[in-house]
Amino acid sequence: MTQTKIDGRAKTREIKRKANLNLLERLYLPEIFKGLSITFRQIFKPKFTFEYPDVKWQPPASFRGRPVLVVDDETGVERCVACGLCARVCPALAIEVVADETELDKERYPKKFEINMLRCIYCGLCEEVCPEEAIVMSKEYELVFTSREEAIFGKDKLLTPASKLKDRLEFLRKMR
Amino acid sequence: MESILIAILKAIIFILLFLTFSAVLTYVERRISAFIQDRLGPNRVGPFGLFQPIADVVKIIFKEEIIPANADRTLHTLAPIISLFVAYSVFAVLPIGEKLVIDGKEIKLVLADVNVGFLYILALSSLGVYGVTLSGWSSNNKYSLLGALRASAQMISYELSLGLSLVGVVLVSGSIQIDEIIRSQANVWNIFYQPVGFIIFLVSVFAETNRLPFDLPEAEPELVAGYHTEYSGMKFGAFYLAEYTNIITASLLVTAFFLGGWYFPFVDIYSGLNPNLSAILQVIVFFGKASLIIFLFMLVRWTLPRFRYDQLMRLGWQVLLPLALLNVLVTGLVKILL
Amino acid sequence: MAKITIDGKTVEVKDGLTILQAAQEIGIDIPHFCYHPALSIAGNCRMCLVEVEKMPKLAIACATRVIDGMVVYTQSEKVKKARQAVLEFILINHPLDCPICDEAGECKLQNYTYIYGPGHSRFEEEKAHKPKRVPLGPNIVLDVERCIMCSRCVRFFDEIVKDPQLTFTQRGDRVVLTTFPGKRVDNPYSMNIIDICPVGALTSKDFRFKERTWNMTAVESVCPGCARGCNVYLWVRNNQILRITPRVNLEVNRYWMCDYGRFTYKPVNSDDRIKNPMIKVNGELVETDWEIAVETAASILKSVKPDEVAVLGSAYATNEDNYLLQKFAKSVLKTKYVDFLRHVKDGDEDNFLIRADKTPNSYGAYLVGVRSNNGFGFNEIVEGLRTKKFKVVYVMDDDIVLNDEIYSLLDEVKVIVHATNKNKTVEKADVVFASASFAEKEGTFTNFEGRVQKINIAVLPKDYEPWMLYKPRKFGEVKPNTGEINKANLALSRLFKFGTQFDRWASGERRNVKPSWWVIMQVANKLGAKFTYASSSDVFKEISETIREFKGLSYDLIGDEGAMINKN
């Protein structure tokens, strides 16, 4: 008899030691048959396999796929003001932002915005820190590249219209 | 002349039969393993993935072969050949049915009808350890060597109980010729006379074939892949094939020694039948029973965890060996008294 | 002397100090916006309120002088509440757009709000709207919305440069910082107001939105713009200098530097840099490696007799470079013709910082021995070129083509030149050594007063790795009496520390350049000398042993602040 604390509640759990096994259990064979029957029954249980390239998993809104830049539906330009907070918070140093001045109201915009997908760890801190809701985690999880250079995603690959990211943006607002 | 031709023909058919059977077995094992784990398994090559073994064979043949720089090249090449050779030699004395009659000629459904088949099998299966040991030694890799050492120790330990458990069968059947042993079970199977012997034999066979829960020689978490760590391409394929052939042979042996061989349970379906038809039925029944044992192999694989080395040794020497000796003693006493 | 107690610490300070200054002396930082040690006291920001015993209300620490027996509390509940109130007031009309603002990271308002602020706003109305992006002059852009009316910039022009250019108009929340009608902010020291501005109201046109402060590495150096030798920080990212800001040195430049000095980084980043050593092949300069360039130079010098070669040092080069050059000229080449060019712009001088001598090290070059004794100077060298006396001219880090005549005279001789950027002398050269600029080498400059100051490597040349040069600095160190948060706290940027060769932001251009003393050593050793200096500090050690004025000096002694030479 041992006392184990789980979730702050004291639970008494009986741990079977060799000493308190009964004869049938010590014979070992009946227990093996018990185990075999469990394994056997498992064969007929429903399967959970997605036949991947044919059937694709649709992630929920809470899923953190590759980070993308939101293009505002109204203005048609990216929301990003190149403040560099995402680059600062990124624990893997995956993000590089080079800012420049723009005539728009927001004054600064990212002249260059690159995410090194080899460095990215999909932690979502960039999304969390962004003051403009400009970088969000998309649902995209299929990433293939054949060279280091290809793995660096520039603005051309990152810009995504807000209408395509509705789920995530709503989720973020709900969680705020 | 003619008999030699028939022998060669028989040998080719036997080898093809076993090759096909082990190929199918790889597929079946993967599918069943998958089902047990709530997965689907290989299902993309051909209908239900049935052509997967063909794809596997093609792949393994064309795979690059790598021999480690400091390996003993001769032994490294020899080891898988020994393994495969031993695996295929064992079933030479295994009868899979009684006889075919073609043009009035009797053709026995066994490659070599020797009267010491029982001893031959025991002798040859001990040779299998050479393949494993040599592969581990020649790879010049510590994991391979450890795997090989374990394999040797394990095989030698369980060989004893394996042999002793069969002594009971021999006592009951009164013969060491395998087809005679099978025929003696026409009415009552040996498993009912020798339940303890059956269990000891089954456990020993698991150990001899290096299957879970006794797969210490290739224990992945500790030894990468054990004795065949340094093997690739067709040489690895040879080990793989040997392993599956051993499983088939072992299942057939269990069936032959304890489960009545080709006899259908409780009813005699062969009397009065055309001998050819009955021979085919016998083969089907024999392999059918063996398949169930193979299925048991798979179930056990996904049910029981691997033994620790000391547990393995204790089970072999302190439990199975005394039990087997006791079994022989009791069987002998009963035989004398009755 | 007055004995006062601040937060339980009793200290004796000079009469006439303010509470704020006294607190700084014992290492207590009282938050403030409008107070600046170099400017008059305005007392308008109210951020420095402290509680003084026996005073009915809170007092501003910047304007309250210490009295013997005074007891001050800077962390009491009352003070904390007052600070929160002041910050809340300031933030009512201050836009909360730190992500856009360039000052973020070195902003007093941002820091103080983070440390002392209320943490939330009760202001729900529309903030006041004022002109944004106002070009104040050639170098400065003003955002009036961000201005907190501390008047530091106004006082700077009134008091430091005595050229009033800015003022406030209107009152209350409509107050606007503006120039006098029809005027521009074009004072040669105008960009100092960007540094002293506690918020992001005044920004540099040149640096605006270029980079966040925390992404840059700040390296202590000395401005090469004139003989003053203002202490500066070079702000580097991806091996490029992005801006230069003054470094406090009360002996030299105090808190300031001129606008001209802030742009001395441009030639370092410029496209006309010489990135590899070059030699002339069939009349064309082609890039080569150091081995071949040194070999070529040595073979040219081997064939000449003493006094057939003229050697020119440089007031742009360090003491170390010049010292080794004159040693090489006198002991290896054995020529008497050693001199350097002076670049004096008469009249372009004031009594604040800017000097007429536009080179950082003319005094140093002179002291270490690059000088013409008995008529073997630059004029005689030009004369010698006319009479075809010379076969080789050896020029270090300077452009000697002052006029067309010299340009054509150089055709007659072989020219070996060290150069950072392409110039007229380089066009005529037979061997060009790619020389490290002031930002790419270690060494010392001697300013016109005789203060020896150290420059450090900020831009990495090829073959250098970051870890060879930088030591991470302590965070949070505040220099006493400056009142400014030390910007070098962010000295080594994270990007710099963790960048790899595969990161685009860490693979900036590395030029194959070498400091001149190293090149001279290679050439001299090819000609039979035995120079064995491992670093510029080895050269400086020899200078301190052989040159009277430098006796007793060392890199350690010079430190960040510099050290005076022995004048007697």
TrEMBL record, chain A:
Reaction catalysis annotation: a quinone + NADH + 5 H(+)(in) = a quinol + NAD(+) + 4 H(+)(out)
Any coiled-coil regions, as ranges: none
Co-factor note (free text): Binds 2 [4Fe-4S] clusters per subunit.
Keyword Iron: yes
Pfam families to which the protein is assigned, alphabetical: Fer4_7
Membrane topology category: Peripheral membrane protein
GO process annotations (BP): aerobic respiration
GO molecular function: 4 iron, 4 sulfur cluster binding; iron ion binding; NADH dehydrogenase (quinone) (non-electrogenic) activity; quinone binding
Entry EC no(s): 7.1.1.-
Subunit structure: NDH-1 is composed of 14 different subunits. Subunits NuoA, H, J, K, L, M, N constitute the membrane sector of the complex.
Protein name, entry field: NADH-quinone oxidoreductase subunit I
Organism field: Candidatus Chryseopegocella kryptomonas
Automatic annotation (TrEMBL), chain B:
Localization: Cell membrane; Membrane
Keyword Ion transport: no
Molecular function per GO: NADH dehydrogenase activity; oxidoreductase activity, acting on NAD(P)H, quinone or similar compound as acceptor; quinone binding
Topology within the bilayer: Multi-pass membrane protein
GO biological process: aerobic respiration
Keyword list, A-Z: Cell membrane, Membrane, NAD, Quinone, Translocase, Transmembrane, Transmembrane helix, Ubiquinone
Catalytic activity: a quinone + NADH + 5 H(+)(in) = a quinol + NAD(+) + 4 H(+)(out)
EC number: 7.1.1.-
Pfam name, any one: NADHdh
Transmembrane segment boundaries: 6-28, 78-97, 117-137, 158-176, 188-207, 244-264, 279-303, 315-337
Domain of life: Bacteria
GO CC terms of this entry: plasma membrane
NCBIfam families documented for this protein: PRK06076.1-2 (NF004741)
Biological function: NDH-1 shuttles electrons from NADH, via FMN and iron-sulfur (Fe-S) centers, to quinones in the respiratory chain. The immediate electron acceptor for the enzyme in this species is believed to be ubiquinone. Couples the redox reaction to proton translocation (for every two electrons transferred, four hydrogen ions are translocated across the cytoplasmic membrane), and thus conserves the redox energy in a proton gradient. This subunit may bind ubiquinone.
Subunit structure: NDH-1 is composed of 14 different subunits. Subunits NuoA, H, J, K, L, M, N constitute the membrane sector of the complex.
Protein name: NADH-quinone oxidoreductase subunit H
Gene: nuoH
Automatic annotation (TrEMBL), chain C:
InterPro entries named in the record: 2Fe-2S_ferredoxin-like_sf, 2Fe-2S_ferredoxin-type, Mopterin_OxRdtase, Mopterin_OxRdtase_4Fe-4S_dom, NADH_UbQ_OxRdtase_75kDa_su_CS, NADH_UbQ_OxRdtase_ferredoxin, NADH_UbQ_OxRdtase_Gsu_4Fe4S-bd, Prok_molybdopt-oxidoreductase
Residues of the 4Fe-4S His(Cys)3-ligated-type domain: 78-117
Names of required cofactors: [2Fe-2S] cluster; [4Fe-4S] cluster
4Fe-4S Mo/W bis-MGD-type domain boundaries: 216-272
Protein name: NADH-quinone oxidoreductase subunit G
Any single Gene Ontology cellular-component annotation: membrane
Alphabetic keyword roster: 2Fe-2S, 4Fe-4S, Iron, Iron-sulfur, Metal-binding, NAD, Quinone, Translocase
PROSITE patterns found in the cross-reference section: 2FE2S_FER_2, 4FE4S_HC3, 4FE4S_MOW_BIS_MGD, COMPLEX1_75K_1, COMPLEX1_75K_3
CDD domains (alphabetical): fer2 (cd00207)
An example molecular function term from Gene Ontology annotations: NADH dehydrogenase activity
Family: Belongs to the complex I 75 kDa subunit family.
One protein family per Pfam: Fer2_4
SMART domains noted in UniProt: Molybdop_Fe4S4 (SM00926), NADH-G_4Fe-4S_3 (SM00929)
Signal sequence coordinates: none
GO biological process: ATP synthesis coupled electron transport
Residues covered by the 2Fe-2S ferredoxin-type domain: 2-78
SUPFAM superfamilies from the UniProt entry: 2Fe-2S ferredoxin-like, 4Fe-4S ferredoxins, Formate dehydrogenase/DMSO reductase, domains 1-3
